[in-house]
Amino acid sequence: MATHKLLLLPGDGIGPEVMGQVEQIVAWFGKQGLASFEIEKGLVGGAAYDAHKQAISEGDMKLAQEADAVLFGAVGGPKWADVPYQHRPEAGLLRLRKDLGLFANLRPAICYPALASASSLKPEVVEGLDILIVRELTGGVYFGEPKEIVTLEDGSKRGVDTQLYTTPEIERIAQVAFELARTRRNKVSSAEKHNVMKTGVLWKQTVTALHAKDYADVELEHVLADNCAMQLVRWPKQYDVIVCDNLFGDILSDVAAMLTGSLGMLPSASLGAEDPATGKRKALYEPVHGSAPDIAGKGLANPIAMIGSFAMALRYSFGAGEAADRLEGAIADVLGSGTRTKDIAAPGANAVSTGEMGQAIIKALEARG
Ligand code: NAD
Ligand code: IPM
Ligand code: MN
Predict the structure, then answer these.
(1) What's the Rg (C-alpha) of the chain?
(2) Ligand 1 atom having least distance to the Cα of 45
(3) What is the pTM of this model?
């Protein structure tokens, strides 16, 4: 059995709490002989800044480059509000994405049947929901230059961020979206703002041309990103795959998270290009949520987004689709039995801790044996 190199970067706030649950699940898969892992652990975000005044060290970047997959918890928090901008905790995550070339961020939003009533929307709006946001992750306004605050002659200041996309960047993310749509309900909705942005015009033209050339069998629609946000809370089931730029994808995926009941439910996979020589791709798996400083250290965090991210690692990095199905099935079983962390429990209802949720999922994994 192949041994997979896994780098764990728990990060800050609830990151280490939810990662702790994944560690037990990884160990369980190892013990059962279902998969074999070689595990390294590193620091990222505020934790890395505290240790060596950098949001990720060169040593940990090297481990990330060498790993078959990185599991990432969350970074950030008020403790680091005043650190220099280039060393803020979030810079560690952005560097990982950029340096590993993780341009494709898959953010599935699935409403587990047992959670239809946990969403802030009516159950009939979210029941059976299964959409996939494909977010471009290494371009756009996150990385465009110039990016600066300049002091002008009159003493006032000007902040600049640059939204920038090239056709190859748009083509490769659209390709991922079309390919994935073919394995699902065969529909892609491309969200941009061509009505106000030049990058939006280029995005729409490029996606349209690629569609005509290689993917005419896939249904394609264009939607303005603001309308897409509205449609997501009006009638999300109209969507299958949504493809969009870095910033719109960040926002639309937080909206989509609430359709599933909680931000604590949404996993994600950040993938690089396939190396033609080895067939492998760099990958980092992370929950969509952040470090949740408001609940950190209280055992309240929902570990399902993190555990679901490990399931995506099993599927996309380790070719272990059956193990991924089993883990996702175990999550569904636990939710079906009524076990809830506070974020997905009915107001006033009993809720379990982060650790109890992790244990319940391991029990359900065993029961599926
Ligand atoms: P957040 O995602 O940390 O929290 C938003 C809300 O969702 C909070 O009320 C929080 O308690 C709740 N929540 C989030 N995850 C949860 C979970 N697993 N279980 C239960 N409830 C959960 O966003 P924020 O408060 O805007 O940001 C806090 C910090 O996290 C900031 O520094 C931000 O930059 C950072 N952040 C990091 C990542 C990441 O590391 N990938 C993602 C988003 C935000
Ligand atoms: C996310 C986060 C990150 C982003 C931050 C922490 C850099 O919000 O992964 O959704 O904006 O991409
Ligand atoms: Mn976000």
Answers:
(1) 20
(2) 40
(3) 0.97
DSSP β-bridge partners for residue 109: 131
Do 138 and 7 have their domain in common?
no
Domain-terminating residue out of 232, 261, 290: 261
Structurally, the chain folds into a number of domains equal to 2
CATH of the domain at 302: 3.40.718.10
Q: Are residues 130 and 78 in the same domain?
A: no
- Answer yes or no: is 340 within a domain: yes
Q: What is the pLDDT of residues 223-254, one digit of tens each?
A: 999 999 999 999 999 999 999 999 999 999 99
Domain boundary among 213, 229, 261: 261
Query: In the structure, which protein residues have their CB atom closer than 6 angstroms to any atom of ligand 2?
Result: 90, 93-94, 250, 288, 290
* Whether residue 193 lies in the annotated active site: yes
12, 70, 93: residue to mutate for ligand 2 pocket, most atoms within 8 A of CB: 93
- Pocket test of ligand 1: the residue of 291, 294, 352, 357 to mutate, having most ligand atoms within 8 Å of its CB, is 291
ipTM of the complex, rounded to two decimals: 0.98
Shortest-distance atom of ligand 1 to CA 77: 32
Pick the residue whose CA is nearest to atom 12 on ligand 2: 250
Q: Give residue 286's domain range.
A: 1-103+272-369
